[in-house]
Structure prediction request, 79 residues.
Amino acid sequence: MDPSAIALQALHQANAQLETAAARIASAGATSPDGTPIDVVDLSAELVALMTAQNLFEANLATLKTDNQMQKALIDIKT
Prediction:
């Protein structure tokens, strides 16, 4: 099990979550040609999704940093 591969996969998932929430927020207030709203967007739910994605990014970047430090320490031990 490679921690960096797992963290990178989680970063891709966080990015997808971020893009989905951003697209929903961007579509807020959009109307069809006849003036009716196209979609109702729950901005509070989308804000929570954005904050969750941010936390996922931070946690997985910390994992990558720790994995990098562990690999450097292993190389130092071997040399």
